[in-house]
Design brief:
Layout (H helix, E strand, L loop, with lengths): L2 E12 L2 E4 L3 E12 L2 E11 L20 E10 L4 E4 L4 E3 L4 E9 L8 E12 L4 E4 L4 E8 L6 E7 L5 E7 L4 E7 L8 E2 L3 E3 L3
Antiparallel strand pairs: 1-2, 1-5, 3-4, 5-6, 5-7, 8-9, 9-10, 9-13, 11-12, 11-14, 14-15, 14-16
Length: about 200
């Protein structure tokens, strides 16, 4: 059987209704191979999502409950005009964005051996209300990058307050940049705060 066209979509079901995540896809490349009398195509595609223009379901826009695992379907269009759809494919996870605001390490400068206080606020996108809300009780890593280095390492893990507020103290030892990193979870993506450089005298 030869195919005239094919595409892949992500979808969820709401009772008897099935609705799609992507409004369009862009095919970047396909690799073709043959085995056992069948032709196989391994294709790369990018899905385009309009959060306020969903093809169906949930009032036609993304809401918080859409941050979940979506199923995928593949449809092949035959040269004679018929088609086959495979609903038993892989899943794709949609996550709400996170961010860490107002990251600050102080005092600046600081004497060696003295305490540095690092603060910030972890937030997550609220798709239902089109805003960011503070994200309570998250485990967030405090990271440090020494002056002259290109990489951060985790110094300690801090639990955000019930209002998403982060605060901890560390002992100063050398010049460098402090930042927060939230590693995310199944419904929320990872994020880093802006770095704050502290000069140790």
């Amino acid at each position: 059987m030869s195919l005239d066209d094919w595409w892949v979509k992500a979808y969820r079901t709401n009772g008897p209704t099935k609705y799609l995540l992507a409004i369009s896809t862009t095919r970047w490349s396909c690799r073709t191979s043959s085995a056992g009398g069948y032709t196989f195509r391994d294709c790369d595609e990018t899905m385009t999502i309009d959060p306020d223009g969903m093809p169906g379901g949930n009032g036609n826009h993304l809401v918080n409950s859409d941050a979940a695992a979506w199923k995928t379907l593949g449809t092949g269009i035959k040269e004679n005009g018929g088609y086959d759809t495979d609903l038993l494919s892989a899943t794709v996870r949609l996550q709400r964005a996170s961010r860490i605001q107002n990251a600050d390490a102080s005092p600046e400068p600081v004497a060696k051996g003295k305490q540095i206080t690092v603060t910030g606020t972890v937030q997550r996108a609220n798709w239902s209300r089109h805003r960011y809300d503070n994200y309570a009780d998250r485990l967030v890593n405090l990271q440090f990058k020494p002056a002259g280095s290109s990489s951060y390492s985790t110094v300690k893990t801090v639990t955000a307050s019930s209002t998403g507020y982060l605060k901890t103290t560390v002992t100063s030892s050398q010049d460098g940049t402090w930042r927060w990193r939230y590693s995310g979870n199944t419904t929320t993506g990872a994020s880093n705060s802006a770095g704050d450089y502290v000069d140790v005298t």
